[in-house]
TrEMBL record:
<dbReference type="InterPro" id="IPR006075">
    <property type="entry name" value="Asn/Gln-tRNA_Trfase_suB/E_cat"/>
</dbReference>
<keyword id="KW-0547">Nucleotide-binding</keyword>
<dbReference type="GO" id="GO:0005739">
    <property type="term" value="C:mitochondrion"/>
</dbReference>
<keyword id="KW-0067">ATP-binding</keyword>
<keyword id="KW-0436">Ligase</keyword>
<feature type="domain" description="Aspartyl/Glutamyl-tRNA(Gln) amidotransferase subunit B/E catalytic">
    <location>
        <begin position="1"/>
        <end position="254"/>
    </location>
</feature>
<dbReference type="GO" id="GO:0030956">
    <property type="term" value="C:glutamyl-tRNA(Gln) amidotransferase complex"/>
</dbReference>
<protein>
    <submittedName>
        <fullName>Histone acetyltransferase</fullName>
    </submittedName>
</protein>
<dbReference type="InterPro" id="IPR017958">
    <property type="entry name" value="Gln-tRNA_amidoTrfase_suB_CS"/>
</dbReference>
<dbReference type="GO" id="GO:0050567">
    <property type="term" value="F:glutaminyl-tRNA synthase (glutamine-hydrolyzing) activity"/>
</dbReference>
<dbReference type="GO" id="GO:0005524">
    <property type="term" value="F:ATP binding"/>
</dbReference>
<dbReference type="GO" id="GO:0032543">
    <property type="term" value="P:mitochondrial translation"/>
</dbReference>
<dbReference type="InterPro" id="IPR014746">
    <property type="entry name" value="Gln_synth/guanido_kin_cat_dom"/>
</dbReference>
<dbReference type="InterPro" id="IPR017959">
    <property type="entry name" value="Asn/Gln-tRNA_amidoTrfase_suB/E"/>
</dbReference>
<dbReference type="GO" id="GO:0070681">
    <property type="term" value="P:glutaminyl-tRNAGln biosynthesis via transamidation"/>
</dbReference>
<keyword id="KW-0648">Protein biosynthesis</keyword>
<dbReference type="Pfam" id="PF02934">
    <property type="entry name" value="GatB_N"/>
</dbReference>
Amino acid sequence: MATPGILPSLNHEAVHRALKMARLLKCRVPKTSRFDRKHYFYADMPAGYQITQNERPIAREGIFGFWVFDEHLDKAYWKEVTILQLQLEQDSGKTIHLPSSPQTGPPKSLIDYNRAGCALIEIVTSPCFETAIEAIRFVQTLRLLLIHHNLCDGELHKGHLRVDANVSLSKDGEYGTRTEIKNMNSIRTIHTAINYEIARQFEILTSGGTVSNETRAADSEGRTVSMRDKEEETDYRFMVEPNLPMLRIKDEWMKKAWEEVEERGKPDFEWLRDDIGFDARSAVHIAEQPELLSFVKRCIRYKEADVTAQDILYWMRELKTIMQRSTSNYPPQRYSNPEIQ
């Protein structure tokens, strides 16, 4: 909130979670890390600058692999994404744009500062996604991993996990002008907004126009609308944050973070895929729904040794059809057989 006389202090839990995330993303963690001020003037940042990590982030040079699947693909394929850096920074306020209405009058923007100043962890990837499907599978898989390790609740609509996407079309190996998409608060919106932006830029380029370097927001229908222009290269006037000392990463901090990651074991989607035999699509679909996951785990505990994952999927489809016909809730919440409780 930029209250006069208030100085920033480093949140140790944020550092601990960042080290755990660095382990999960196979990042290199340097011995020292530094905080910087990023200067810009926008309503959600009343101080006029953001505390972030520009040159010396807490981790860098990672890699994250995941399965890409879709009903339009003949088969799933494995993709690895390069993590450029993982940085701690200060959160901004939440901007709420209200359309015009008879009750509220002309359109207006409101700022919620409840989260302003809180620590967040930002993951920066290389520009290696080629389709919207790859982008959403990355987000889905990463979200499940973060939830499993208690790094966040993964609720996109509540802002616990936020996604920005830079979209550009390249020709003959040359990078095009990129646009940044914000305000994507669901997996569906991410998919729709990226595809919309690809189509929008393609139409501009094929008609002989020029794509503007700008920030755009996704509306409720997944369409992108211009927020603010970035035609000129922004000079954020980065400087070392004078009120936070150099962060020296202790070996015992890393050891504790590493041990906690190992203790948690495999996330549910990996266990379903690697140990039980579900395909990548089914494993992610089940893991994303806590009630369905609980039901499947009960089925797996109760099943005979020769029952396969495909058998369980078949039974699930049949049971869903039967329960929907009888207006019962699926998956079931109560069981008559005490052995599968």
